[in-house]
Amino acid sequence: MCNTVAVTRARWTTETTPLPPHALAWLSQRVGLGEPFSEVPVSAPPSTLSADAFTALEAVSTISADGADRLGRAGGLSYLDLLRHRGHGSLAVPDAVVLPSSPAEVLEVLQVCVEHDIAVVPFGGGTSVVGGVEALRVSKSAVVALDLAGLGSLVSIDPVSHVAVLQAGLTGPEAERLLGEHGFTLGHVPQSFERATIGGFAATRSAGQASSGYGRFEDMVESVRMATPVGEWVVGAAPASAAGPDLKQLVLGSEGLFGVITEVSVRVRPKPYGPRYEGFVVDGWEAGVDLVRTLAQDGVPADITRLSDVDETEVALELAGSKAAAVKKYLRFRGVKQPCLVILGWECRSRSATMSALSGKKVVRLGRAMGASWLHGRFNGPRQRDALLDAGVCVETLETATHWSRVSELRDAVRAALVSELGDPVVMCHISHAYETGASLYFTVLVPRDLADPVGQWQRAKTAASDVISQLGTITHHHAVGRDHQPWLENEIGSIGVGVLRAVKAQLDPTGILNPGKLL
Ligand SMILES: Cc1cc2nc3c(=O)[nH]c(=O)nc-3n(C[C@H](O)[C@H](O)[C@H](O)COP(=O)(O)OP(=O)(O)OC[C@H]3O[C@@H](n4cnc5c(N)ncnc54)[C@H](O)[C@@H]3O)c2cc1C
């Protein structure tokens, strides 16, 4: 029996966090509530793994064909995954779960899977929202989820160079706890931090909430150790190198198709002394975009640099409850007509540099209480999503990035596509990461769930939004490609790009056992 993923995959946690009454009142008035969710119990189909293959895998690793263990690794945590786990739409369940406990064991498991023609889905925290861990068998005899939870150690730390080697199965909090014992931090805090893993961050080119300061996950990676069907491959030898193309960049974002990442060597930073988070308001989206662009181009963004549009700000204030009225009154007094919330947080970068760039700009300071409130709720999204689903709401997110000159055009186009498919949804948007040349846009969509066809409702909206996104920006800034963004990949990287990735795959995984049906 396996011993991880004790929680149901139909929700983020087993604890139910109901929406507060004022939030429910606002929702029913603005969004409209659907029918409370009728959860249809799901069960795992019989495993098709042959007895021979089971015995061969059992000889080299820990394996379970138990239905609950298999359901616990069936798919990721997108809105559609949650629907499937609540009995709507068909769920792809792996035939077994394999739990190796060392990099050497991962190599042995891959050998057995090649011999028995078994598809292998590398499984970290299972937080993919793009179908990345869907257990697709494709043309293989069976499919196993290869859960990396047994690779959970800090292998080494070099306090002089600020480099740590982390095993792939460490979750965000575990990695931070182990690094914290040595006075260091990774500073990588995506909203899925609580469940996502180091291997998953590397395999998807993840971006965290403080990536404007610490960099995206790929910026932190020094080297990667990866088990492939043709042997072990270690890429990255020094902080910088001119030894041909940077092959590390081929491994990062490879989404389990080229190999199983077992260890990642990362740049770490001393734990911040006295981090500080503050809230500000600007009048109107365009003013906010200009402000964030200036900070990024002047090289003085805060580590967390986040700008909400008018709709997201309005919802944030509505849901803040009693304090919201006083904030709104103050903003009216300050002459702000279209409030857009800016959250700035400093952990490793200089606050004074950002603040001097803000001086003279039309910005209303809301102070540390607003920053503290953001910090307090930074991981609430997935819990609120559970509660919204329970209340009959379709709730999902989309993300992209583009150049500054197109940021507003892209935002408007995505909103229009969603409105044309969904009727009158609430569409909220924020800039989540600021770069010198552009920014990422993150959308949250709320609409009453279509009772007759909840899966089709979101699939149509997602397709419409992705068509628009693929014309004006990247199909994904940090959620990766998986299965869901696959139809738009060739448009972004070209047929030559697809050919290059196929050639790499053929070299590393000649029989195609690794995560079939994703990315390419
Ligand atoms: C509520 C919520 C919020 C999110 N917020 C963010 C965010 O702020 N920023 C962000 O970047 N992402 C976010 N995500 C997406 C997701 O958390 C990231 O893609 C994350 O990096 C996935 O890590 P994981 O360990 O859960 O990987 P999994 O979901 O288990 O796997 C993701 C992909 O990587 C592959 N993979 C996993 N581990 C390995 C390995 N060791 N070797 C090879 N391949 C592997 C899988 O096969 C799959 O293709 C969010 C998701 C949710 C549900």
Automatic annotation (TrEMBL):
Say if the entry is tagged with keyword Flavoprotein. yes
Keywords linked to the UniProt accession: FAD, Flavoprotein
Per the database record, which ranges form the FAD-binding PCMH-type domain?
Answer: 90-271
List, alphabetically, the Pfam families matched: FAD-oxidase_C, FAD_binding_4
Q: Has the keyword Transferase been applied to this entry?
A: no
Q: Which family does it belong to?
A: Belongs to the FAD-binding oxidoreductase/transferase type 4 family.
- Write down what this protein is called: FAD-binding oxidoreductase
